Amino acid sequence: xxxxxxxxxxxxxxxxxxxxxxxxxxxxxxxxxxxxxxxxxxxxxxxxxxxxxxxxxxxxxxxxxxxxxxxx
Length: 72
Hints:
This protein is mainly alpha-helical. The protein has helices spanning 6-11, 14-36, 45-71. It has one domain: Helix Hairpins (Orthogonal Bundle), CATH 1.10.287.
């Protein structure tokens, strides 16, 4: 199950997307650090979901920016 749905991401403002990316990257770094240190994490698939969600947000942000550039 994705952390954020596509519809939710599209409804966010550009600034909210940037904040969410920072938040998700922070969590991703924390989880990766735990794994490197030899600790067990509760949900290993969470790392993959975080990476996918970050990519999804950045893609939609880029699409929106390209559309604005094309119009203006």
